[in-house]
Design goal:
Blueprint (H helix, E strand, L loop, with lengths): L1 E5 L3 E2 L4 H14 L2 E5 L5 E2 L1 H16 L3 E4 L5 H9 L8 H8 L6
Parallel strand pairs: 1-3, 2-4, 3-5
Helix pairs in contact: 1-2
Length: 103
Amino acid sequence: MSNMLSIPENATTRDIVAISESVCCALAAHDEVVLDVSDVKAADLSLIQAIEAARRLAARDGRSLRLLHPVHPQLSALLERAGFLAAPSPADVDFWFHGDLPQ
C-alpha cells in the first residue's frame, strides 16, 4: 500500500520538524511513500537533508520512498548549491530527477 504526501509551499528549517515527522510516520505505516514536492516555493538545505534521511530510513526498513515528479528547477539549483550533484550516483539521479539529470 502506498501513501502520497504533499510537501508544503514552505519547507525551510522552521517547517522541517513537522515535515520530517509526517514522512517518518508515513514510512512507518506504508510500504511505499510518494512525495510531491511540486508546490515547494521556499526551501533550504534542511529539506534536502530530511528527504535524504528519509531515503536511508526507507532503505533500511525495506520500504520505498520516491518523488511523484522530478524536482523542479528551484530544488535542482538547491541540490547543486549544496553539492549533491557534484558526483551523483545513479540512484540519486533516479530519485531526484527520474533518471534524467538536468544539463
